Amino acid sequence: MTISSKRLLGGVAAAGLIVGLAACAPAPEKGEGAAEGAADFVPCIVSDAGGFDDRSFNQLSYEGVQKAAEELGVELKQAESNSETDFGPNIESMIGEGCNAIVSVGFALSAATVEAANANPDTDFILVDDAADNDFDGNKDADNVKPLLYNTAQAAFLAGYLSAGYSQSGKVGTFGGMEFPTVTIFMDGFKQGVDHYNSVKGTNVEVVGWNGETGSFTGGFEANQDAKSVAQNILDQGVDVLLPVGGPIYQSALQAIKESGRDVALLGVDADLFETDESTKDFVLTSILKNMDVSTYEAVMSSANGEFDANAYVGTLDNGGVGIAPFHNFEGKVDAALVKEVDALKQEIIDGKVTVKSYLS
C-alpha cells in the first residue's frame, strides 16, 4: 500500500486537534434501541486494503457495524478495498447506495473520506484511526466526520512490562509494517513498559527492533517473505517475546517462531489473536486490544438514533477503548506476582500516577 509521505507526520501534527476534541468528547453512547424511523437507516462500511477477514482492525470494525445493523434490523452495505485506488470509488459507491452512516476503516482512507464528507454534509462519516486533518493545521477538515482513535500506547505499556517480566533471555522484540504513528504507537508503549520494568526492578531487559525513534519495518502490511525475514532477524538476536505490529504480518512472525524451534511468545495487536486465529493458541501470550468493534457499533447506533456526535473519540484504558487480552494458555506460565503488578500498573496509568507518552497524550 502506498501512502503519502505526509501521513508519516499526520499523527503528530494532528495531536493538538485530537486532544482538544477528546477533552469534551466522551465515548459514544450505547444504543438503547432504534429511534423511530431507524428502519430506513442504512449503515455502511469501506475496508482498507487488508479486507474484512484480516483478523485485525478491518474485521473488528466490520463486526461492530454488523452488530449495529442486526440490532437495528436493517441491511449493512459494504465495499472491500483491494488497493488505495479503490478507496474513493468505494466510498462513492456507498453514497450511491443511500448510506446514512459510512465507516471508513484506517488512516489510509482519510483523504477520500474527508472529500466525500464535504461533498455530502448530510451523511455521517466515521473514520477509524485518523483525525481527519489532512492539511495538518490542527483542525478537522470536515464537520460531519467522527474520528475514532485509540491510545494503544497505554495497553502496549502493560504488554511491555508483562513481556519484560516474562522473558527469560532478557531480550524482547518488536517490528512494524510501516513507520506510521498508528503503528509506532504500539512500539512506543511497548518499549516504555519494558523501560518501566527495568526502572522498578533494577534489570536491563533489552528491546530489539525499536529504540524509541526508529526500528525494524517490513515496508508493508502483508504476510510475506519480507515480514518473515524481519521477524527472523529479530529472533536471531535472542528475543523470547515478539510483538509484530501491522495486521497480517503476525502470520509471518508466527511462521518464523515455529521454524526457529525456540520457545518464543507472540503478542497480538488490535484483536485477541487467541480468539481470532486458532493457529496462534500455543504461542500468543496476550494481545494489545483496540476495541474498534465497540466504538464503531456505538457510533453507528448514535447516528441511527439521531444523536451523532462528530467530536473525536479516543479509546483509553480508563474508558475501555484499549486493553490487553487474557493470557489464555499462558495463564499458568505467567508468575502470579507479575499478574498482580500488571493489574496494579493498569490502575496507576488510569489514575495518572504513571504517564505513558504517545502522539495522543
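The above is record 1. Record 2 follows with the same two-line structure.
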Amino acid sequence: MNNFHKYLAITELEETWGFYVTTVGYSRIEANQDYPHNQGHPLTHSFTWNKGRILNGYYLVFISKGKGVFESALSPSVEIEAGTCFFLFPGIWHRYKPDPKSGWEEYWIGFRGSYPDELMNKGLFSPSQPVVSPGKNDSLLTQVKRILEEVRSGSPGYHQVISGITLQILGLVHALCARTNMVEDEDVQAVEKAKFYFRENLESPLDIKELMRQLPMSYSKFRKLFKDVTGEAPHQYHLNLRLDKARELLSTTNLNVTEVAYNLGFDSVFYFSKLFKTKNGVSPKSYRGKTG
C-alpha cells in the first residue's frame, strides 16, 4: 500500500451529526528513515521529537508492523509493538516515533464531535492510559483499511459512512482489549495472527517461512488448524484475498489489468487472468467492462 493521507473539510452537516472524522492516513516508515514526515501536513499537525505536539481533536493511531515508542504529558514512555493502538487526546502534549532499526507501519484516524466527547468523558478510553493492545486482529485491520478506501473513493455521503466505521473500530478496540485480559486459546491467537499477516501482505505471494517464525507451532499443525477454522488452506485463503483486492482495484481505480496484476505480486499477467477468471467467472478485462 502506498502512503496516503487526507484532511477532510468539515461542514455544518458533519458537526450536526455529532461524530465526524477530520483526517485519515497510512504511512510506512522504513528502517533508519527520517521521522516524522511533515511534508503535506498542515502546520497544526507537524511536529518534531524534541518539541512534541498538541492537537485539538481525538486521534487513534494503529501500528500494524514494526515497533517504536510513545509518551505524553499524562503517561510515561511506552514501547510500542505491532498490534498496538494509542490515543491522542485534545490539548495533551505527546510525541512518538518508530524504532530506527525496524521502522513501522502506522494508520491513523482523527475525529471530533459531541458523541466522542461523551464516550471519552465516561472513561472508556483514558488520557492517562492512552496505549492499548488489541493485538494483530484481522477485523480491526479490515475496518481501518475500509475507511481509507471510502475516503479514496469519495462517494456521496462518505463522511457519515466513515464516522460509523470509526465508531465500530472504537467498539472493536475496546472489546479486544477487554478480551486480552482473559486467557485466550493459543490456537485461536495463531489463526488470528495468520489472517492479519495475510491481509497485511496482499502485494506478494505468501511467505510461509516468515509466517511460521511468528507462530508457536509446526506448519502441518497450523495448516490443519487454519483449514478447520476458515475452511481454506492458508495459501488458498491468501490467494483469495489477493483476488478480492484485484476485483476492488478494477472497480475503483484506473489501473489497467497489467498494473493490477503486478501491484498484487503476480509475476505473470496470464497467470493472474487465469486465476481471476476461475474465481469470478469472467476475465479481469471483462470484469472491468461490466463495472466501469
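The first helix runs from residue 12 to 17.
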